[in-house]
Design a protein that fits this description.
The structure holds two protein chains of two kinds.
Chain A (H helix, E strand, L loop, with lengths): L1 E3 L4 H9 L69 E3 L9 E7 L10 E8 L7 E8 L4 E2 L2 E3 L2 E8 L4 E10 L4 E2 L1 E7 L5 E8 L11 E7 L5 E6 L4 E8 L5 E2 L1 E7 L5 E5 L5 E5 L5 E7 L6 E5 L6 E3 L4 E8 L10 E6 L2 E2 L3 E2 L5 E6 L2 E8 L9 E3 L6 E3 L4 E8 L4 E9 L11 E6 L5 E11 L5 E10 L2 E5 L5 E8 L1 E8 L10 E7 L4 E6 L4 E8 L8 E6 L9 E4 L5 E6 L8 E8 L9 E8 L4 E2 L3 E2 L3 E10 L2 E2 L4 E6 L12 E4 L5 E7 L6
Chain B lengths: L1 H16 L6 H11 L11 E4 L12 E8 L7 E8 L16 E2 L2 E4 L6 E8 L5 E8 L11 E6 L9 E2 L4 E5 L11 E9 L20 E5 L4 E11 L4 E10 L6 E6 L6 E4 L5 E9 L19 E8 L5 E4 L4 E4 L9 E9 L3 H10 L6 E3 L5 E10 L1
Parallel strand pairs in B: 9-14, 16-23
Antiparallel strand pairs in B: 1-2, 2-5, 3-4, 3-6, 6-7, 8-10, 10-12, 11-13, 13-14, 15-17, 17-20, 18-19, 18-21, 21-23, 22-23
Classes of the chains: A mainly beta, B mainly beta.
Chain lengths: 671, 382
């Protein structure tokens, strides 16, 4: 067993990468100077982290020509460091980042003489990338060469001959500044499994110990003892204030750059009480109530919790249909990575306004429900929406003309005999390819009188949802003609009815679809397990987007046989379920993600799945030499082949002496 | 002066007889007639075993002392011996123990059976007197004691003198005492239990062969009276009763969730799925997750999830899982979604009454204990 401590993630990243200049004590950026206009980096507008514009003590990437003050200080530019995970995002820290790179591991991460890892990079906001720059470094400092896979420079292979940590950094040439992804992947020795232990101490008064994670490798069929030593944190009271010092209620989210730990809350009544690890870096997203643009920046526990928020940049606009008629009730949002703007809601004249931060942004324009219009998306990037902090910015969304018709949907009982009141109907374009649905005109009128304009394509799909009336009928007027997927959600009064999906073609003449609700179907199978799987809970979790079926549950009987009542797919589209086996606590079997099973219509027999044998792993949770009782210990799979790295495969509560035992899956099965 | 001279002449013998007026004349005759006659008559010493210790206890060290004197003022040597059983008629020297120890006092380190203690006082001229005493060591009655530990769940409760319902109680008798260090036997008895209880004292799983420990599953609230009788090998017995108060059923409490309990407002991107997890429910009988050694009376917490769009009433979604996921692309920007979780333990009606009494629009619902049975998050899609 080997412990890979990620409890001090910044230190670890520093050691492995020496990439985190700011966080690792690298040189601080020079104070920003008053800009002369034209700055594109909205992070500089707020004058740095926690409003410390005058200090100007950092911010490696304040951006040229920044409008006011300096960039963030200290830790800007740090990336995420997901260890051995399937996905490592480039994080969102720093005050001047236009896009984010995500890294995905496509292969198993098990070392061997001929073993190679494969990783894929992708960039947020749909930006076009002209060049990728990869760098891989083993923990001993050796550089590892990378090879593009299949001539695709966004996907590379590299040798993983030895177990250990491999630091992977990738940069993208997009024409705007993207934060480099910065990920440490853990390559295991053959036969080892890696698990992430997350420990949340009890909310005992005065116990300033934040939730922390630690990666542990466990060999096959070997009992292990782990010691989880928690670091004490620093309590920070976070709250937002405007430039006059007035308290602004706000949603605040603090995300650890190197872990899945997130602290969030709303400061309506009092500041957000946050316990932060002293050496860790965090992203902080602040979404104030009222007319203030949200902000995103990096922070450590060293900074005070007083967050100064400038109002941002005002943007006005109008939403019209193809005939030029105003569309009221549309919602408009601009976005830079995970940082949104406020929501602009169009009035009777189609006029809207919102607050955002300057930069190159993406946009989403959501039509009012029942309007029949598709949701419109405009990507960021060089051809994205430029918002100038000093210009009068105006957006005009115009939906494209289309032949339209009315789709009527009549929902009936499973035998088709009578209409069903209380059902809900969702209509979606029957394609995954977004098409051009309109244009967004961007106007930036500078104080000098010059106006820059750009007209951008907006793409999207129709996705709308309405309830049926008392006669089981609902109508979607003005839908563009085409193919649609229609899903009827039965009311709770008909428990035997299932989510029912059908596909229809809409013409300008309109179409009425009669949808008898489908009955649930049986998904059955057999669990194999050493000693038998009798009594094991089996759960089927719907993987669909949009609308998902409730979790189906069954108890395996003799010889591991189970039968789950699930919602079917359609004649054309599978409904895909993830099956999870959850054995009784204290037994010889471990919670196991069995696999995914697609189902269309009719009953289905799933392939035989094996429930992993449990390896008891005992451990202790301590902090500063003191046992921590009552702490929640959750264990996640972090192997590259994990079917579900987000759901705990084991969880327990420590006894008063800090001890715990969890049953982890034996062998190299991926839970 | 003349008397002093007489003493000087006749030494000790004369002085010894000096007080005896009746024989004074004879003494004078002897002295005057025979000069200083030194072959005196030796008088044997006297000896008694002191009364203490009055009680001699089995297994307990007993120290015997004696008071001896010699009429001749000779130095007296004490010798000690013990023989088993009661003291014989000691007139016959043949019954006297031959093996003796010379010492001023005598220690019996760990008496158990009746014995006879002897002491012999001998002066330098061989004159001996003895004393003896029959001693029957007394037996201590063992002292029974019951200690109670809570095995599961490791749950602190509001009343520290009470044990939580559905927990396993461990009755410990091994702190019972016998001062004689006799081997003890233990007899356990559940002499009273709450109405409706079928609880029994059972062997503890980790101490099946240990008669000093018994376990009890507290499946009903109320008083459980446990008796323990402890006997030594001489039949001395003591009994103790211990009443264990088992608390009423506690409300299940949402202790930890993701997102956090107090994060009532969340901001999310509609293109991302939003997952809600109950990480911990604190409860006496239905905790989640279980600690490492769940109780055999442990039940299953029920999680009920509800989702509401905007101001619409919340709709029931799921009950089977401690988590709920709002899928990606289910909602759009500007939507506000309410996600609610309610928990229930096996006392459905009790929790239901609390939930029904709460304001349905309130984000949280808590019973009188202040712990939460309901939490509602508002998801703002931006």
């Amino acid at each position: 067993m080997k412990s890979r401590a990620s409890l001090l993630p910044v230190l670890l990243s520093c050691a492995a990468l020496a990439l985190l200049d700011a966080a690792c004590g690298g040189s601080e950026g020079a104070p920003g100077t008053a800009g002369t206009g034209g700055g594109t980096v909205d992070g500089a507008v707020d004058g740095g982290i926690f409003g410390d514009a005058s200090a100007g003590s950092g911010g490696a990437t304040a951006g040229s020509g920044g409008s006011v003050g300096s960039g963030g200080r200290g830790v800007s530019g740090t990336g995420g460091a997901a260890t051995g995970g399937t996905t490592g995002a480039g994080g969102a820290g720093g005050a001047a980042v236009g896009c984010f790179i995500t890294l995905t591991t496509l292969s198993a991460l098990e070392s061997g003489p001929n073993m190679r890892a494969r990783m894929k990079a992708s960039v947020s906001n749909g930006l076009r990338v002209t060049a990728w720059t990869w760098q891989v470094q083993f923990e001993n400092g050796n550089q590892i060469p990378t090879t593009p896979f299949n001539d695709d420079p966004s996907v590379v292979d590299f040798a993983i001959k030895s177990p250990g940590r491999y630091a992977v950094k990738v940069q993208a040439g997009t024409g705007i500044e993207c934060r480099a992804a910065d990920v440490v992947v853990t390559v295991m020795a053959p036969g080892m499994s890696s698990f992430r232990f997350r420990v949340t101490p009890p909310a005992t008064a005065g116990l300033d110990i934040p939730t922390q994670e630690q990666d542990i490798e466990v060999g096959p069929d070997v009992s292990a003892t782990v010691r989880l030593d928690l670091s004490a944190g620093t309590n920070v009271q976070m709250a937002a204030y405007d430039t006059t010092g007035r308290y602004i209620p706000a949603y605040v989210r603090i995300s650890g750059l190197s872990s899945g730990v997130t602290i969030e809350g709303h400061t309506a009544r009092h500041p957000l009480d946050v316990v932060m690890l002293p050496l860790a870096a965090y992203d902080v997203l602040v979404v104030p109530d009222g007319p203030y643009a949200p902000n995103l920046f990096s922070a450590t526990s060293a900074q005070p919790g007083r967050i100064q928020i400038e109002q941002g940049t005002y943007v006005s606009g109008k939403v019209v249909n193809a005939a030029g008629d105003p569309v009221s009730g549309a919602r408009v949002i601009l976005r830079s990575g995970i940082r949104p703007s406020t929501v602009g809601l169009s009035d009777q004249l189609g006029e809207f306004s919102l607050w955002t931060r300057a930069g190159t942004l993406s946009a989403v324009i959501a039509p009012p429900p029942g309007a029949g219009l598709p949701e419109a998306n405009v990507a960021a990037g060089p051809a994205g929406i430029t918002i100038d902090g000093y210009a009068a910015n105006r957006l005009t969304m115009t939906w494209a003309a289309a032949n339209r018709g009315t789709l009527s949907v009549l929902v009936k009982t499973t035998d088709g005999s009578s209409p069903v009141a209380g059902a809900r109907v969702r209509v979606e374009s029957d394609t995954t390819q977004a098409s051009v649905v309109g244009t967004l005109r961007v106007e930036n009128a500078s104080p000098s009188g010059a106006t820059q304009t750009a007209t951008l394509d907006a793409t999207g799909v129709v996705r709308t949802e309405l309830n049926v009336d008392a006669t089981g009928l609902t109508r979607f007027p003005g839908l563009p003609v085409g193919s649609y997927k229609v899903t009827a959600v039965p009311p709770g009064t008909i428990p035997e009815a299932a989510l029912t999906t059908t596909h229809v073609g809409l013409t300008a003449a309109g179409f009425t679809a009669t949808v008898p609700l489908a009955s649930r179907v049986m998904l059955s199978g057999t669990l194999l397990a050493k000693g038998g799987a009798n009594g094991v809970r089996v759960m089927a979790i719907d993987q669909s987007t949009g609308i998902t079926a409730p979790v189906a549950l069954a108890i395996a009987g003799d010889r591991g046989a189970y039968s789950l009542s699930v919602d079917p797919g359609s004649q054309m589209v599978d409904r895909v379920y993830r099956l999870v086996a959850d054995p009784p606590v204290g037994g010889t079997l471990a919670r196991t993600v069995l696999g995914v099973v697609p189902i269309r219509v009719g009953n289905k027999v799933a392939p035989d799945f094996t429930v992993a044998t449990a390896v008891p792993v005992t451990g202790f949770v301590v902090s500063d030499g003191q046992a921590i009782g009552g702490a929640v210990v959750q264990v996640f799979c972090v192997s590259a082949t994990c079917l579900d790295p987000t759901s705990p495969i084991a969880e327990t509560v420590t006894l008063q002496n800090g001890s715990f035992t969890v049953a982890l899956p034996a062998s190299t099965q991926s839970p | 002066m003349a008397y002093s001279l007489l003493l000087d002449r006749c030494g000790r013998f004369c002085s010894r007889f000096f007080p005896i007026a009746g024989v004074f004349g004879a003494a004078v005759v002897l002295v005057l007639g025979g000069g200083c006659y030194t072959n005196r008559i030796n008088v044997p010493p006297t000896v008694e075993i002191n009364e203490a210790p009055i009680d001699v206890w089995r297994g307990q060290r007993a120290t015997f002392t004696a008071t001896a004197s010699d009429p001749d003022r000779d130095v007296v040597t004490l010798e000690w011996a013990i023989t088993t059983g009661a003291c014989p008629d000691a007139q016959d020297p043949a019954t006297w123990p031959a093996a003796r120890e010379t010492r001023p006092s005598y220690v019996v380190p760990s008496p158990s059976d009746p014995f006879c203690i002897w002491v012999f006082a001998t002066d330098p001229y061989g004159a001996t007197k003895h004393a003896h005493r029959s001693v029957d060591p007394k037996n201590h009655v063992p002292v029974a004691r019951i200690d109670v530990e809570l095995v599961e769940p490791p749950l602190p409760i509001s009343a520290p003198e009470e044990a939580p319902l559905y927990g396993q109680l461990r009755m410990i008798g091994y702190n019972s005492m016998d001062e004689d260090d006799d081997p003890l036997s233990f007899t356990w008895f559940l002499s009273a239990s709450p109405t409706g209880s079928t609880a029994q004292l059972i062997n503890c799983a980790d101490a099946i062969d240990d008669p000093t420990i018994r376990c009890l599953w507290a499946e009903q609230p109320g008083d459980y009276e446990i008796q323990l009788s402890v006997s030594d090998n001489l039949g001395a017995t003591s009994m103790v009763k211990r009443i264990v108060k088992v608390a009423d059923d506690q409300l299940p409490c949402l202790s930890q969730t993701t997102p956090m309990l107090n994060a009532t407002v969340l901001v999310r991107d509609p293109k991302e799925e939003v997952r809600f997890d109950v990480d911990r429910v604190t409860d006496d009988g239905d905790p989640f997750p279980f600690s490492s050694s769940p109780s055999s009376l442990s039940g299953v917490t029920q999680f009920s999830w509800f989702v509401g769009v905007g101001m619409e009433p919340l709709e029931f979604r799921d009950r089977n899982f401690p988590s709920l996921t709002l899928p990606a692309d289910a909602f759009t920007i500007g939507d506000e979604i309410q996600v609610r979780v309610e928990i229930q333990d096996r006392k459905l009606a009790k929790v239901r009454a609390i939930l029904d009494a709460c304001d349905p629009k309130a984000a949280t619902c808590a019973g009188s204990s202040g712990c939460l049975q309901r939490v509602t998050w508002t998801v703002r899609y931006l």
